Model the fold of this input.
Amino acid sequence: MRLALLLSCLLLTACDSRSTFTYMKKDPQVKSLNEIKADLAFSCVHEQFPTPSAESDVLFQYARWLQKNNQLKEDKSVDVEIERLYRIAAENGHYKANINLQNGAMRGHFQLRGDEHLRLSERLISEGVATGYYFVGIFLQQGSAGLKQDPEMALRYYRKAADHGNAQAQYYVGDKLAPSDMAPDIARQMRRCAAEQGHGEAAIELGINLKNKKLYQEALEAYQLGVAAGDETSAYALEQGFRNPLSTNELHYLAQQEDLERAERYEKISKVLGNYSYAKPNVPEINEILPLPPAKLPAWDGKLQWLEERLANIPPEKPSTALINQLSKAKLLDPATGRGLPGSPAFSQAHLSAPYCYSGQVCPQTGYWKADIGGQLFSRLEGAQVPVSRKAKSCQP
Done:
């Protein structure tokens, strides 16, 4: 019964069209396990994003460049600027800015309130961006962003996101369906679809599964997708596979003839991917520099496009004050913060009633301050008073 309940949560489901956040309809009765498995059919769809305006993309590209350069030694003041640019771009319809803003807030880099997360996710859904369903699944799973915790409904939103092309959801749902007593064939389809969209973990897990089933050619293709996605373990698996391990070596055997030049290329790539794993590298040109057999190896200068661009670190166009003011005015935003002004859908009274102060900054006024950890406000810890901060002192987490 428990298995049937889990599978029923992952069925194709329809949303009530009257309201974006009216919960998806639940089946009044649990179907038999065979019926449920028959309804789990999955068709691979890649996520689509509406084309952003050229103006909003200037803000997005510059914010993304700032973010890439603020990873190893994080400067909170730079995070504040990134948040401002992402906010303005997101309100002007840049959906990747919307996603990056929410992801950054979930990781504690930016400051978003629960109602803001929900509104931004609703906008993604209304524009057909599958990540919106994935975010709502997270909120339902955690009981955050003003939604009541509902693990069953969260699974339905994850499945909805997967069906509409979100790679993270495809990987997540695929993991749930992977056990042999669930729906492993559907899981492989979902992992393949996610891997095609650059999800490295989906690729490596698919490759391992196919290798264990002795489907070696398919395993090679899955690992190759993993390398393209920037997964160092996939590159290592291919390196070892081309070193001609014994067939009894279940960990590395891929039924390939020894090809040391191929192995050495994969080894070099694996090291680069490992060294820069924090920066989300990728190798989209992998089939050009290191195609799978029977293709012959082309000449290669040992360079990777992603690494060359990162080392060059050429900044994109910096948005002008005039452009920022123009985009802010169009959506009734405060150009200094990117937050909504009265009359804007992005407006929140809380933005005016409670000033913000980031860690390391001078507090703007004397008084009692709330610690905002990862976007979740905590006014009091168990048995402890709210910390007092004086104007002359800097805020500390």
Q: What stands out?
A: The radius of gyration is 24 Å.
